[in-house]
Structures are given as C-alpha cells and as structure tokens.
Write a structure and sequence with these properties.
heterodimer; A: alpha/beta; Rossmann fold; 2 domains; seven-stranded mixed β-sheet; globular; B: six-stranded mixed β-sheet; 10 strands; Alpha-D-ribose 1-methylphosphonate 5-phosphate C-P lyase (chain A); 4Fe-4S (chain A)
Amino acid sequence: MTDYNFAYLDEQTKRMIRRALLKGVAIPGYQVPFASREMPMPYGWGTGGVQVSAACLTPDDRFKVIDQGADDTTNAVSIRKFFEKTAGVAVTEKTSEATVIQTRHRIPETVLSEEQILVYQVPIPEPLRFLEPKETETRKMHALEEYGLMHVKLYEDIARHGEIATAYAYPVKVEERYVMDPSPIPKFDNPKLESAALQLFGAGREQRIYAVPPYTRVVSLDFDDHPFDPSKADHPCALCGAEDSYLDEVIVDDTGRRMFVCSDTDFCAGRREDAA
Amino acid sequence: MTPLLDVRSLTKTYGSRTGCADVSFTLYPGEVMGIVGESGSGKSTLLNCLAGHLEPDRGAVLFDTRADGPRDTLRMSEPERRMLGRTDWAFVHQNPRDGLRMRISAGGNVGERLMAVGARHYGEIREAAEDWLDRVEISTNRIDDRPAAFSGGMQQRLQIARNLVTGPRLVFMDEPTGGLDVSVQARLLDLLRGLVRRMGLSAIVVTHDLAVVRLLADRLMVMKDGYVVETGLTDQVLDDPQHGYTQLLVSSVLQV
C-alpha cells in the first residue's frame, strides 16, 4: 500500500485534473483539455475514467465500477481491484451505497443522489468527429454554436432507416449551449443524464475532461416530426421481471434461443432479493 | 441604387509575390461579373479574399447586408462572416468534392444549410431537398444516394443546389464548369443562367473559359499578374479588346 501514492497518481497530477474538472463543471458540456498520464492499462480500457476517479477519491469513499451495467466483467473487476490496491478504499457493488461510481457504457438504473459522483469512461469525446474530421474546425463550431451538422447525421439516419437509428452515444445539448457526446451509453439512458449526482467524463487518449453538474438541463437532439425516443428491447427481464430497465439480449444455446436480462446486475440482483 | 458588393483596393500578397493588387469594382443586385485570366493571374486569390476564405492585406469589401446595409465584411466578427457564408453567400467550388460532403446523401447535402440556419422539421427539409434536386435536374429518386455515386456533372449540379437552397443573394463560383465535358458544360451553363435570371442572383464567376463568361456574365474583368488590366461589358471586352493581353486571350480561343 505504501508503495503507491494514494490512488496511484501523484498529488500534482491530481491537482491538474481537479483544475480541469472545476473548469468542466463551470462550463457544462465543454471539453477541457488536460495532460492525460500514462496509466497501467491500455487506452480504451478507461484510462480517462481512472484518472478522474483517482482525482476524486478520498480515503472515506466507497467505490463501485460497472462495465456495460455489470459489476463482474473484466474491465470492472480490474479497475475496482486497481483502486483497492492503490487507494485502499472500500468497494461495493450496491449502487445506493457507493459514493463514487466509475462506469463504462451505462448509467445505473437506481436513481442517484446528490452525494454521489458518476465517472464515465469516454472513448471519443468529440460528437462532431465523424462529421467534421478537422479538430480546429470542430472547436470553432463549438465556440460559435454551429451545430447544424449534428442534425445532418440524424437526417441521414432517418433517410436511410426511417427513424433515428443512432442507439448509443446519442448527442445531447447541455444547458442550451454545448452539444456533447454522452459516451457510448444507450439512448435509453439519456433521460437519466438530468441527475442529482455530479457527472464527470474522462477521455484519456483524447486528453479531454467534461462534466454535467447536478440538475443541469440535458436535451437529446431530434427533429420536430421525429422526436427523441429512448427505446429498449420490448421484453421484461427474464430473471427479475423488470419492465422498465435496459436489457441485454443473451443467446443461451446453439439453436438460437435467447433471453433478455437486465444489463444492470446490481439492480437485477436487488429486485430478486426483494422478491425472495 | 446601393451596390450589393463594393470592393475597394483589395490587395493580397504572399510574401514578396503578388496575389492580387489594388482591385476595385462594384457589383449591383442581379448582376453577374466574370473574372478571366490565365493560371496564376490572381483570380482565385481574389475570389477567396472576397468570400472571406483568405484575409487580404489591404482594402475593403462592403457587402449590403439585409439588416444593417453596407458593411465591411473584413471587419466583421468571425461568427457574423460565417453566418453570411451560409445564408446570403454561396460558394461553388471547381471540384465538387471540395463543396460536397461525399459520405452524406444528396438530400443531406442539400439540407445541411437549412439545418445550419435552424430548420428542425425532417419532412420540410426533405421537401426542400426534393424541390431543389428537381430544379437542378437530378431525379428525386436519387435523393438518398451519396454524391460518390453521381457523375461529375451531377455532382456539380448537386453542389449548386446545396448552395442555393437558402436563397443566397451573392454566389461565388470558381471555375464552375472546369473538368466537365462540353455537352455537360453546356447543360450546366444553361441551368446556371436560368437560375441566376429567375432568382435575381448576383454572381462572381471566375473562369479561364471565355465561352462561360460570354454566356453568363454581364460584365467582365480581365486579370494578369494580380492586376486588373481591363474591365467592361462582356460583349464589348470580347469583341473589341483594348489591352494587349486581352487581345491575345481572345485570339487564343480555338475555333472549330
């Protein structure tokens, strides 16, 4: 334990990240550049999220990590162990008991409170990236609020598929100013972006941090005649019977049988415990 | 009558070399101005300076804005200039690949400017796109095809539709018929002439093709080495060239 500084990063680095976080909170949805460090894991495994978590954690925190909603997948387990080892913080799988939750691709089903911080791992922070390849130009577009191009993408979806087919990383407008990529969460989770908890986004490879402070207005972009629809699979969960949670489709044998189960393992287990 | 565009001693140098020097002219609403000259004579530099793509060293470009009358576009803030660029101005590139989004369908290309100025109704955007594809003689069942699947002439017509959809008042064209074969050129010119007349557009057309200006332009400016060497009514300049270079230019046209 004493081999590492608390939470792995040195204090100067954490200070630098906290400064970026403060700026991000002050300008909701704005991508703040920061000097991302090499972390002992590959890019794409949550290096941004881990750095933000490291800068936020205190010895009293209770830490939870989810990957696609699950507490027991490789990414979640290894990041949880990383902070158990380097920060010695308590960990939990219960959403309601955690004070800091690092997440990849999901927002927990349980409603978050003001005492909690949700840290997202972000692969590509720039919502305009695949529409306008020049970073100088996208920054200018953010600065001048020129977001027509974002709707061109949605237009293409409808023209090609008859509906807005973007199902994850669905672009949102934060506090009527910045268009933001909410990281690849399913669009089902977009309404939950308006939350009591502080939401922080870290992109390690891209060296960007952004934030959505509590109770910030977050609107999913859409057309007047094609309104935003937070869709999900039209099934109840096969394990707990929940009809209002986001479901994973699981193929269970080689004859094509499948089942739909909650992607949030803690939520599903909790419901089954309550029922028993 | 207030000129739509009033250019005063516009100068742009690239280090010690001259891009364009001391260019002044006025353009009135509904008028088409042709700029001709050989390669390297500063035509494109001039056009890019006028359209705000390049920053000139000296001079003024006064544009008669809808809201506040004539204003110097070079002294406008960047957001204002970019707003002009997608509402009252249009820029048709020589290579349609520069002016189109190749990975986005024809409908999306036409709709982009509408969405950029705040259109948020899919049905209306699509209707406008269909209407404009029809006007530039592209079959509306190609609306969901990408420009990469279009021929060169169709791409150029699509670029024109995309630019004119917001009803601009001033169109900048850089060699609009370059790289097209003669029969396609003829159709495109015919189309352009019709659109310009019907919409009452003003346009500045840069080209090295004298046939293009003969058909499209009311007035003509001949450039050489960055300077304007001759100006006048198109027919007058082409039929009775005064400057030695213009005489050479006119006599160099191949007769078939």
